[in-house]
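Work Package 4 report. The design task specified in the project plan requires that, given a folded chain encoded as structure tokens, an amino acid be chosen for each position. We show below one input record used in the internal validation round.
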């Protein structure tokens, strides 16, 4: 029997969510498409793996056993890829550093001081930790939270979060806002970490009013500029992108955004550790600056 690892990965997502709809959103699949994958896997192993449980699903005894073994199998497969890729790069000494823009000025300065050969790669919101786990990059500079990925990190930057509005919006000229004032404002929906970046739930216990789903900073700012929704983001986004038609207003009563250097702890090379130590240098978290 040839086990398709993609089917196993899809099944594990279903097992974690215990709900086809939520699992499908995580995998960027349609619900019927994901259901077909689960059925294909059940046909392959020859036994039912899930059963209906009200509005969700639950694993059968066979499904629980398969989930345990499949998780270990996928971890071994992922490690094999990571070790192979890092072994190939070790010959050249090149360290691949990913980043989710904008890159903090102090971190950019440290990269410029490195003597080791470094390749920079921009990564998006969704792939930012998966490329570390898969061994495609060695380090990543990215905003927290990280999610469930098996990576380690150190916070190197902290800055305020701001609300962004289309010019002409009733809040666009405010000097500051509180999160309680934004309860009726549609906010862009995000594929990851919406609890933190959309402040869901709000302090009064309500969920935000959801606007369009976006998948990148550029999409988010375009939706905001069109007046279709507002967003909450890091203060440096406005300085880095300087989008026309968008105003940024500090939100004074929510926690700051944190930027971290993250790495896969399983197979760091000597060169990777050296670059990591330089990027994390400076005696701890640095404050926001205006550059």
């Amino acid at each position: 029997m040839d086990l398709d690892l993609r089917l196993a990965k899809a099944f594990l997502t279903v097992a974690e969510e215990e709900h086809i709809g939520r699992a499908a959103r995580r995998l960027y699949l349609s619900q019927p498409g994901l259901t077909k994958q689960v059925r294909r896997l059940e046909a392959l192993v020859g036994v039912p793996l899930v059963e209906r449980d009200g509005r969700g699903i639950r694993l059968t005894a066979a499904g629980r056993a398969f989930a345990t073994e499949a998780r270990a199998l996928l971890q071994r497969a992922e490690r094999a890829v990571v070790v192979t890729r890092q072994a190939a790069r070790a010959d050249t000494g090149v360290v691949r550093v990913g980043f989710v823009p904008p890159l903090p000025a102090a971190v950019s300065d440290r990269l410029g001081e490195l003597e080791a050969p470094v390749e920079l790669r921009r990564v998006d919101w969704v792939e930012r930790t998966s490329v570390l786990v898969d061994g495609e990059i060695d380090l990543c500079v990215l905003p927290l939270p990280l999610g469930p990925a098996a990576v380690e990190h150190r916070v190197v930057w902290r800055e305020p979060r701001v609300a962004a509005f289309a010019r002409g919006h009733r809040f666009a000229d405010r000097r500051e806002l509180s999160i309680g004032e934004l309860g009726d404002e549609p906010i862009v929906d995000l594929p990851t970490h919406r609890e933190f970046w959309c402040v869901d739930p709000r302090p009064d216990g309500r969920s935000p009013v959801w606007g369009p789903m976006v998948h990148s900073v550029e999409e988010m700012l375009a939706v905001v500029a069109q007046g279709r929704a507002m967003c909450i983001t890091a203060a440096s986004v406005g300085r880095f992108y300087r989008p026309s038609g968008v105003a940024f207003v500090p939100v004074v009563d929510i926690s700051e955004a944190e930027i971290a250097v993250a790495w896969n702890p399983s197979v760091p090379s000597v060169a990777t550790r050296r670059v990591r130590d330089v990027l994390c240098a400076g005696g701890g978290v640095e404050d926001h600056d205006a550059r």
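The chain has three domains: 5-82, 93-158+258-287, 161-250. Validation will be extended to a larger panel in the next phase.
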